């Protein structure tokens, strides 16, 4: 580090840094945003390609003559399914599971959930039973997924007569969508990470290599939608998406992602906005950390999985079930040829369209530019503080810095624990349902945190010094940078969205700014409002814009879903926001009101 | 100073007790950054079970602790948590007393030097006053006890805590001037893991300095004392090894413990540099690279002893740091031991030029270790290269910080 060790050069460098700090930060921020939006611009993206050798070189002749079955699921006809699968020559087993949710789920209207999964195993005729593929169809009450179960049974019948299977195929019909899948996967892998009660599986088929989840609601389909986003923003290997798209093109089936068709006119404004909207939808869906299809829970067990949803929009060209059967047959045959798990292609990517992708090497730079702002500010503060304020500040100095940190984190812990634990008490005293109690308690604790600085300043005997808030800001900036970095590594979209709103306010926050205005800006860019904006933007992007009151109700339901996802499936978004991001924001709020 | 120290001990014990009772204890004791095949508690329990069955605990290549350790835990396994908390307390108190003694020595030397007018005028701002130095031992104890690395190591019940206690007691005895106890404790520390062998040179230099024997290879007084100290050290080592033989009735422990440390057969990822290299190395180069890596740990003793012979305590600190970076199975408990010494030289921090960058790197790496482990092992999206990159960066940060601190002399 010659440049940094030579004192005169070092002084020049630090002088440059402190003088030009704000302009560099602004340039970095704008560059980060522009870079991110530019990712959707087609010349900056790469064409998708098949990376896995075993999937590219095999020719698959599709001969599917599949007779579609129509099935009406009202509830889960367990005996009928068992008989149907048995008559098709599968080894059929059932699994029952039950779970009491921490509070009633108002979107799906369930609280005490009991269900049964039915699955049939098609054993590979001449292969050792070491590997398996899963095709699943969630069976919900009513007829929202009846066609998928019928397709599953038809596929089972067709597959039974073929001799080329090298892996066992498991046909899974799960009840209560994600909960059934979670119970089945936990039983299959002998884990219990979410506290669900389930009966052990009687039949097993070896290590699962890949999985497909089908959602078909009507027998006439105009396009197939591919859903990739899984739990905690995890994505399947890009090869799976490429495979699906390749088959759709081969069979002439319309294929969409995020419900949007591809366009070819990337050089026009509409073409670009279309791609940008697709990418933004993917980012928003990935950031919320919930699994957008049953496949999302498979990803945690290192099983590449995707969901396929049939959409019936009003077009002329309709695809019949036989073509879909051939498509699925082709996909399963290709997956059958895999020698090892899909690992060649990217695990971290963004898709502005199905044939174009952005890899982590490209999009991480946008995030890096945002985090560099925090580091530059921290460096600037360090230079201003003069070096040795780190290791041994004097007695009262440590306390004035440590107190806001401890209190912010305690508030975060309260935000995480209290809403669910205090719901009975809240329901007794207020005329609200349990779900509303939980959500409103969370909002109340969040708002109560805003009152903290006034209380803590009164508790502290020594008054805050100029140095005090600088040390606190330095610690908080570094903490936020490390936090956002770790978040972006696991779930890039969540990290990026939080960075976009948190970095400007945290980098520029000082106690000397006009209090009322900066307080307003800080609140408007706080994590809760970020979630609110994301809800509105998401509704705009799926072309179902909502009014303010509807948006607010949607926001409250998003909070309750977040807490439920965390309790039921282990989603990390709610704990991250409550235990780390919110305390970090509170520390900056404390700095703003540093007297 | 007893009251603040007691308060600190109470706070530290409370934190550890709370963590022991929570569900995190299980999680922490499986983290590879905190436990290694040499000092994992699971392996101690396994060894004790084998011993109870009458089989040699070293059969099966699971257990790699010394016989003294297994017999110690044979008696106290039911109180294991208390033992580890007490060990941390002993280490902290030993460090506290050693730094107190060190400060007294330094202050005395400074007073004599001031009186004989040996300081140039512009050095006066570096002179330490008793008031400044009053809180330093407490800060050292605090740095050790409240360091997250130490807490994690204690909650995981890693025997690294015991090794740290022996080294801290060795430093205390050396600074107090008792050559006999220092030799015995150094022998015990070497017996536990071979690397403290390199601490022989700084201890010897300290005693020579204390007894005013000049370090001159031609003087008989130098050789006389060296031979005495070496005799105590080697003698205790022989006695301890012999006792171990009689405890278990066989020499099994030598290949299992020392052979294991030297030949690195287990390539579980950890925060050290060995595992990745040896995972991808061809067999016929393995012996050569083992030798190179192991010599690397011991080699720095020679130039550092020559350069730092006037500052043996600083040399002890540098040696401990080098051991914990370059040893074959480092864990965060080893890092915590040398980090505890940093407040002893707090008056020189203004000369640490890039300390901000280096500490940011170390902090970020500590946070990224579990994230990249999760991405590699659980999510399957990353691979060993990502984890080793963070390991490399962490060790680079440590080496860089050592580099900066060595500017103190």
TrEMBL record, chain A:
InterPro entries, A to Z: Gaa1 (IPR007246)
Any one biological process term the GO annotation gives: GPI anchor biosynthetic process
Keyword terms, alphabetized: Disulfide bond, Endoplasmic reticulum, Glycoprotein, GPI-anchor biosynthesis, Membrane, Transmembrane, Transmembrane helix
Record's bilayer topology term: Multi-pass membrane protein
Pathway(s) where this gene product acts: Glycolipid biosynthesis; glycosylphosphatidylinositol-anchor biosynthesis
Any coiled-coil regions, as ranges: none
Subcellular locations according to the entry: Endoplasmic reticulum membrane
Cellular component terms per the entry's GO annotation: GPI-anchor transamidase complex
Ranges annotated as spanning the membrane: 20-41, 61-82, 357-378, 398-418, 438-456, 476-505, 517-539, 576-594
Cited function: Component of the glycosylphosphatidylinositol-anchor (GPI-anchor) transamidase (GPI-T) complex that catalyzes the formation of the linkage between a proprotein and a GPI-anchor and participates in GPI anchored protein biosynthesis. Binds GPI-anchor.
Subunit-structure text: Heteropentamer. Part of the GPI-anchor transamidase complex, consisting of PIGK, PIGT, PIGS, PIGU and GAA1. Interacts with PIGK.
Protein name: GPI-anchor transamidase component GPAA1
Organism: Cyprinus carpio
TrEMBL record, chain B:
Membrane topology: Multi-pass membrane protein
BP term (GO), one: attachment of GPI anchor to protein
Entries under Pfam families matching the protein: PIG-U
Stretch forming the signal peptide: 1-25
Coiled-coil spans in chain: none
Pathway assigned in UniProt: Glycolipid biosynthesis; glycosylphosphatidylinositol-anchor biosynthesis
Locations listed in the record: Endoplasmic reticulum membrane
Recorded GO CC terms: GPI-anchor transamidase complex
Name of this protein: Phosphatidylinositol glycan anchor biosynthesis class U protein-like
Native source organism of the sequence: Cyprinus carpio (Common carp)
Lineage: Eukaryota, Metazoa, Chordata, Craniata, Vertebrata
């Amino acid at each position: 580090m010659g440049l940094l060790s030579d004192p005169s050069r070092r002084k020049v460098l630090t002088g440059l840094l402190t003088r030009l700090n704000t302009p560099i930060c602004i340039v970095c921020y704008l560059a980060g945003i522009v870079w991110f939006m530019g990712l959707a611009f087609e010349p900056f993206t790469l064409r998708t390609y098949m990376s896995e050798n075993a999937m590219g070189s095999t020719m698959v002749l599709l001969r599917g003559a599949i007779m579609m079955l129509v099935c009406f699921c009202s509830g889960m006809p367990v005996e009928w399914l068992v008989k149907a699968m048995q008559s098709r020559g599968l080894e059929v087993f059932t699994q029952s599971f039950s779970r009491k949710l921490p509070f009633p789920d108002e979107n799906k209207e369930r609280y005490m959930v009991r269900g049964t999964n039915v699955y049939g195993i098609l054993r590979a005729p001449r292969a050792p039973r070491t590997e398996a593929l899963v095709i699943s169809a969630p069976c919900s009450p009513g007829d929202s997924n009846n066609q998928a179960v019928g397709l599953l049974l038809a596929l089972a019948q067709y597959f039974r007569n073929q001799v080329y299977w090298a892996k066992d195929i498991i046909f899974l019909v799960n009840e209560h969508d994600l909960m059934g899948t979670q119970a089945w996967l936990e039983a299959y892998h002998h884990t219990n990470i979410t506290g669900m009660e389930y009966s052990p599986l009687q039949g097993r088929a070896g290590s699962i290599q890949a999985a497909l989840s089908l959602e078909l609601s009507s027998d006439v389909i105009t396009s197939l939608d591919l859903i990739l986003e899984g739990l905690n923003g995890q994505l399947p290997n890009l090869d799976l998406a490429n495979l699906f798209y390749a088959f759709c093109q081969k069979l002439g089936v319309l294929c969409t992602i995020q419900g949007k068709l591809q366009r070819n006119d990337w050089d026009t404004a509409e073409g670009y906005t279309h791609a940008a909207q697709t990418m933004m939808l993917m980012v928003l869906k990935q950031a919320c950390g919930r699994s957008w299809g049953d496949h999302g829970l498979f990803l945690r067990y290192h099983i590449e999985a995707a969901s396929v949803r049939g959409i019936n929009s009003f077009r002329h060209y309709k695809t019949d079930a036989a073509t879909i059967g051939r498509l699925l047959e082709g996909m399963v045959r290709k997956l059958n040829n895999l020698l090892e798990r899909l690992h060649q292609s990217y695990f971290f990517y963004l898709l502005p369209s199905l044939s174009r992708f952005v890899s982590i090497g490209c999009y991480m730079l946008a995030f890096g530019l945002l985090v560099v702002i925090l580091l530059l500010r921290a460096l600037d503060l360090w230079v201003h503080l003069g070096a040795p304020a780190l290791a041994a500040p004097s007695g009262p100095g440590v306390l004035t810095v440590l107190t806001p940190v401890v209190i912010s984190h305690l508030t975060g812990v309260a935000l995480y624990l209290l809403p669910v634990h205090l719901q009975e008490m809240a329901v007794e005293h207020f005329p609200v349902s349990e779900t509303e109690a939980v959500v409103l308690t969370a909002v109340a604790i969040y708002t109560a945190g805003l009152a903290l600085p006034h209380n803590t300043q009164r508790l502290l005997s020594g008054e805050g010094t100029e140095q005090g808030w600088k040390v606190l800001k330095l610690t908080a900036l570094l903490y936020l940078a490390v936090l956002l970095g770790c978040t972006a590594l696991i779930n890039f979209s969540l990290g990026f969205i939080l960075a976009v709103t948190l970095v400007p306010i945290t980098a520029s926050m000082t106690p000397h700014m006009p209090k009322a205005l900066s307080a307003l800006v800080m609140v408007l860019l706080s994590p809760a409002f970020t979630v609110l904006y994301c809800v509105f933007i998401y509704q705009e992007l799926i072309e179902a814009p909502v009014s303010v009151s509807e948006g607010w109700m949607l926001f409250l339901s998003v909070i309750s879903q977040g807490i439920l996802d965390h309790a039921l499936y282990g989603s990390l978004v709610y704990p991250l926001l409550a235990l780390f991001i919110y305390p970090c924001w509170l520390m900056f709020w404390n700095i703003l009101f540093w007297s | 100073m007893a009251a603040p120290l007691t308060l600190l001990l109470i706070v530290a014990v409370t934190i550890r007790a709370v963590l022991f009772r929570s569900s995190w204890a299980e999680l922490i004791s499986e983290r590879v950054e905190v436990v290694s095949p040499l000092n994992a508690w699971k392996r101690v329990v396994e060894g004790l079970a084998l011993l109870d069955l009458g089989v040699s605990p070293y059969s099966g290549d699971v257990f790699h602790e010394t016989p003294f350790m297994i017999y110690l835990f044979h008696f106290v396994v039911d109180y294991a948590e208390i033992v580890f908390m007490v060990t941390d307390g002993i280490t902290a108190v030993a460090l506290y007393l050693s730094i107190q003694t060190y400060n007294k020595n330094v202050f005395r030397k400074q007073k004599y030097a001031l009186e004989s007018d040996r300081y140039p005028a512009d050095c006066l701002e570096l002179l330490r006053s008793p008031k400044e130095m009053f809180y330093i031992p407490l800060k050292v104890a605090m740095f050790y006890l409240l360091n997250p690395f130490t807490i994690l190591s204690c909650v995981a019940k890693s025997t690294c805590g015991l090794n740290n206690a022996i080294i801290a007691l060795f430093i205390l005895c050396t600074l107090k001037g008792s050559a006999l106890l220092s030799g015995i404790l150094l022998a015990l520390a070497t017996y536990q893991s071979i690397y403290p062998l390199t601490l022989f040179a700084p201890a010897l230099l300290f005693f020579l300095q204390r007894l005013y024997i000049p370090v001159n290879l031609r003087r008989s007084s130098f050789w006389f004392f060296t031979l005495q100290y070496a005799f105590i050290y080697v003698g205790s080592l022989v006695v301890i090894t012999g006792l171990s033989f009689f405890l278990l009735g066989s020499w099994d422990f030598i290949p299992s413990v020392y052979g294991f440390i030297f030949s690195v057969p287990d390539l579980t990822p950890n925060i050290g540099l060995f595992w990745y290299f040896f995972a991808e190395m061809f067999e016929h180069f393995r012996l050569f690279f083992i030798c190179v890596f192991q010599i690397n740990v011991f080699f720095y003793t020679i130039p550092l002893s020559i350069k730092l012979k006037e500052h043996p305590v600083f040399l002890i600190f540098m040696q401990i740091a080098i051991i914990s970076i370059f040893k074959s199975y480092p864990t965060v408990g080893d890092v915590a031991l040398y980090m505890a010494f940093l407040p002893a030289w707090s008056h020189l921090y203004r000369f640490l030029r890039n300390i901000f960058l280096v500490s940011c790197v170390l902090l970020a790496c500590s946070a990224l270790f579990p994230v990249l482990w999760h991405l590699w092992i659980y999510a399957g999206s990353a691979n060993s290269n990502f984890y080793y990159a963070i390991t490399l960066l962490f060790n680079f940060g440590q080496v860089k910080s050592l580099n900066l601190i060595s500017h103190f002399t």
